[in-house]
Amino acid sequence: MATYSNPKYSADNYQANRPRYKESLVNTILAYHRRDNPAAGAELAVDVATGTGIFAQQLPPHFAKVIGTDISATMLESARKAERQSIEYVEAPSENLEFLADHSVDVMTVATGAHWFDIEKFVSEAQRVLKPSGTLAIFGYTGFAHFVDYPQCDKIIKEYGLGDDRLGRFWDRGREVLVEGYRNYHAAFARNAWPGIERHIYPNTIEGEPSAELPPILDSEPNIMDFQVTWRVLRAFLLTWSTLTLYHKQYPERENAAEAVIREMMAAAGSTDMDEKLNLQWEEILLLCHPPQPHA
Q1: 136 neighbors 114 (Cβ within 8 angstroms)
Q2: What is the reported pTM?
Q3: Which of 71, 201, 218, 295 yields a CA-CA distance of 20 to 30 A from 283?
Q4: Per-residue pLDDT of the chain (296 residues; tens, 9 = 90+)
């Protein structure tokens, strides 16, 4: 994705202020991986679009070898600085993982990155590299949340992120795939006969959900993240959004848009304390499936 590949984008700020994924998420993926095949392997996990390696760093205790890939040398440099375990990082596009042999990967993960891919090309490449007993786990958070105590802020943050007069038109192409709950991927896997498709969403505020054509599983609690924030922490998170960089490239004279929307939401909530703990339900999607079995 072009903005994250820009050397001027702060990968270190991304590493410091992006949410971490629940420790239980790897176990959730492995439980699915072994549900129908208890002998399914755990030799190689590949985290595609790893960015600064935030999720990849949770994988080594569960796999003999872990590889993280990304197209951004800047992000991978930050990943290597933060890495405390034996993870191999490779600069490569998700649609062309030519360094991986056919049917060599046990589990492939994509953490809040699949929306930037060419869907059909990535699905084809994932099918090539995954073992017949393998698992693909695509998951992500939209960046939007339901403010349990201040529901009036729900609309403000969505208009900020999606409105044409705010940041909406500055997103790199693909953002809509995430906002719509990865339904495009669900459809692609169904077309290509991937078995065992499960698409979990939480909460029920994701645009267009629940879909009648591609019904998701509506979870009663989050699967992928438990991001506890104050207004101050939320501001730091909003400052990592790639679209903010592009917005201020066009409007360098304007007040920082993230600062402005935090002030707008705090006014709507009647809050004056930047360190107030917020009760948020973050929109998230978890999509799990197995590759089609190769023809004899």
Answers
A1: no
A2: 0.89
A3: 71
A4: 555 555 655 556 666 667 789 999 999 999 999 999 999 999 999 999 999 999 999 999 999 999 999 999 999 998 998 766 789 999 999 999 999 999 999 999 999 999 999 999 999 999 999 999 999 999 999 999 999 999 999 999 999 999 999 999 999 888 899 999 999 999 999 999 999 999 999 998 887 888 988 999 999 999 998 889 999 999 999 998 989 989 999 999 999 999 999 999 999 999 999 999 999 999 999 999 999 987 65
**Do residues 45 and 106 lie in contact, with contact meaning Cβ atoms separated by under 8 Å?**
yes
Vertex 131: Cα angle to 69 and 71 (nearest 5): 15
Distances (CA, A) of 43 to 82, 159, 171, 214, 232: 23, 44, 37, 32, 41
Strand locations in the chain, DSSP E?
A: 44-48, 65-70, 87-91, 105-111, 130-147, 198-202, 217-218, 229-230, 277-278, 280-289
- Letter string b/e over residues 157-168, b meaning 16 or more CB atoms within 10 A of that residue's CB: bbbbbbeeebbb
The burial of 7, by beta-carbon neighbours within 10 Å (0-12 exposed, 13-18 middle, 19 or more buried), is given as: exposed
CA–CA dist 192, 210 (Å, integer): 22
With beta carbons less than 8 A apart as the criterion, state whether 284 and 205 touch: no
